[in-house]
Amino acid sequence: MPEYKAPLRDIRFAMQELLDFDKHYQNLPGGEDASLDMVEAILEEAGKFAAQELSPLNQTGDKGCTLTDAGVIAPEGFKEAYARYIEGGWSGLAQDPEFGGQGLPESLATIVAEINGTANWSWTMYPGLSHGAMVTLETHATEALRDTYLPPLVEGRWTGTMCLTEPQAGSDLGLLRTKAEPNDDGSYSVTGTKIFISAGEHDMSENILHIVLARLPDAPAGTKGISLFLVPRYNVNEDGSLGEANSVKAGSIEHKMGIHGNATCVMNFDGARGFLLGEPNRGLACMFTFMNNARLFIAQQGICHAELSYQGALAYAKDRLQMRSLRGPAQPEKGADPIIVHPDVRRMLLTQKAYAEGGRAFTYLCAQLVDLAQKAEDEAERKRAEDRLALLIPIAKGFLTEAGVEAASLGVQVFGGHGYIAEWGMEQILRDSRIAPIYEGTNGIQALDLLGRKVMGSQGELLEGFIGEVMGFVDANRDNPEAGALLAELERQIKRWGDLTRQIAGSIQQDPASLGSACFDYLMYSGYTVLAYIWAQSAVKAQQALAAGSSETAFYQSKLATARFYFRRILPRNEGLAVSMADSAETLLSLEEEAFSF
User: Fold this and answer.
1) How far is residue 83's CA from residue 74's CA, in Å, rounded to a whole number?
2) Domains: count for the chain
3) Percent of the chain at pLDDT above 70?
4) 506 vs 436, 458, 522, 575, 582, CA distance in Å?
5) Whether the Cβ atoms of residue 223 and residue 285 lie closer than 8 Å to each other
6) 207 near 158, Cβ under 8 Å?
């Protein structure tokens, strides 16, 4: 398994040079304490914790969790690392001081989560799920529930989960059957079975708080009849101490392809005592507080796997000797040259690098918008951030997770036969990455959400706002002779994005199935275009730094070379996508079901 080292220089570039996080924090209510020095110290310590505590457990955690009569046991070392995580105060980094948090910006916690997640994604899912539970309770729980359940959750002594999926109800939550019967004391008895529950049961914390979707007895059918409940693993006494075990337990651990270090459980609720969150029959709307947070977290998962696979592949490519450079021996004193000299290996490494670094900046942009949507004082600024997030979150989740799988696969390929062997750890990264395009709404559903609800549902307003932002950047830099070719291509792609959207809108009016036939290609086209915007910005910043006489020549030249590679070798994929998304739905639907045979 690659020995992870946090890419702090690139993190600083994305935060400070591209997105000016220092100014952002100074203008953000509650962000004043996130000074440049404090942020730097936090990132340094996060990098150390990830490298020293989490990275060594990544491959051993692949052995998986154990289900015993006493409950689920996490992999060796996970519990101890989590205890040190709590001791370091990491759990409440961005949480409200009222409940024991440090009150720092949400985006800073997001960046720390990326560092942890790259070192060990399976482990990071435990506090990651807890973070979503914190946000949900802060937003939708009563004052009494917040006072009882948030402080130990924020401290990290308790953890959280999200319980949506059922055996008969995957992404179609309208089919769920878990029921909640009211009790005389105002609580509810929750009964049902949930599957695929990450961090569903483990021995790392004292208590586990399950956020559960269920139906009240008089609930209407479909998604309009879903309510949201808090169900603790252990009941809590009035003084805050733990009481008897609740009627909820793991029935089994899912046998899965990857992320074996995280306990993905079948959870059985048998009249478990729970508490209503939010209004009755409004649970799905409440759950979106959790799900939008989770979708950005999963977008980061794609970047984490791309970065870790890149670090492993790069180290191997510099060390592995095989054949000679086509331009003549690069290291004639050795029997062969390192494989990094070969163009095809460079293609794979540059693809990983372009996804990891460009995707990192993409997720940081989204995290910055989350800050503004939550805390900006100006209502118009909050609205702009919410609109931008509505467009970008499905693109980030869908596109970056697809990119993460591609990058992880390329990492195996760079290693050749050794990449397929478990001891090197590269195949684990690929296995771990594959769940990301499925999590939190499959990428097909993200694509439907993007094209159907966000773009068409807003009459194109959300997209036009973003196109205007990109064109503003292009116009402001037209006189930059070094970036001229990149900016011209970015302008062509962004304008065609609008043209294709209008073309597809016309097709949908003629045949509603055109929405489903075009949406995934539309999602990927959108992702490649957003990443082109980010790489064009990166190129301009790099040129400005070099023109100003920066001594970090290699770093900025690397940015320029990667930007050129992205525009010339990856962005052209949009040409095929433009053709395929404009094709009729009939190509997909003309074959009769009975003709699908073997």
Assistant:
1) 13
2) 1
3) 99
4) 32, 15, 15, 20, 11
5) no
6) yes
pLDDT tens digits, one per residue of 169-219: 777 777 889 999 999 999 999 999 999 999 999 999 999 999 999 999 999
In a domain? residue 59: no
Return the exposure string of 364-383: e unless at least 16 CB atoms fall within 10 Å of the residue's CB, then b.
bbbbbbbbbbbbbeeeeeee
Residues constituting the chain: 598
d(Cα 192, Cα 310) in Å, to the nearest integer?
Answer: 42
- Structure confidence at residue 598 as a pLDDT band (50, 70, 90): confident
Task: Please report whether residue 209 resides in a domain.
Answer: no
Instruction: Calculate mean pLDDT across residues 374-402.
Output: 96
Give the β-pairing of 264-277 and 188-198. Answer: antiparallel
- Terminal Cα distance for the chain, rounded: 40
State pLDDT tens for residues 206-250. Answer: 999 999 999 999 999 888 899 999 999 999 999 999 999 999 999
Give 471-503 as a DSSP string: HHHHHHTTT-STTHHHHHHHHHHHHHHHHHHHH
Asked if 440 is an active-site residue, the reply is yes
User: pLDDT tens, 545-584?
Assistant: 999 999 999 999 999 999 999 999 999 999 999 999 999 9
Q: What is the mean pLDDT of the chain?
A: 96
Encode pLDDT of 280-315 as tens digits: 999 988 877 667 678 999 999 999 999 999 999 999
**Which two three-digit tokens encode residue 360?**
């990192």
Q: Cβ–Cβ contacts within 10 Å for residue 406, how many?
A: 19
Distance CA 433, CA 416 (A): 19
Residue 490 domain-assigned (yes or no)? yes
Residue 219 within any structural domain of the chain: no
- Measured in degrees and rounded to the nearest 5, phi and psi for residue 51 equal -70, -40
Distance CA 161, CA 264 (A): 10
Strands 207-214, 158-163: pairing is parallel
Distances (CA, A) of 301 to 184, 195, 196, 335, 434: 43, 21, 17, 39, 10
Tokens representing 247 are 């009627």
**Which token pair is 594?**
């009975």
Residue in the structure block whose two tokens are 């990264």: 429
Global pTM reads: 0.97
Residues with Cβ within 8 Å of residue 488, at least 6 apart in sequence: none
Q: How far apart are CA 256 and CA 247, in angstroms?
A: 26
Is the separation of the CB atoms in 264 and 197 below 8 Å? yes
The answer to whether 154 and 100 have CB atoms below 8 angstroms apart is yes
Residue identified by tokens 């750890």 is 425
| Residue 197 dihedral angles phi and psi, to the nearest 5° | -90, 105
The average pLDDT across 339-362 equals: 98
Distance of CA 55 to the CA centre of its chain: 19
Catalytic site residue from 440, 482, 489, 594: 440
Structural domain boundaries enclosing 566: 458-586
Environment class of 217 (CB within 10 Å of its CB; exposed 0-12, middle 13-18, buried 19+): exposed
Separation between Cα atoms, residue 50 and residue 41, nearest integer Å: 14
Per DSSP, what are the bridge partners of residue 248?
Answer: 269
Q: Which residues pair with 250 in a beta bridge?
A: 267
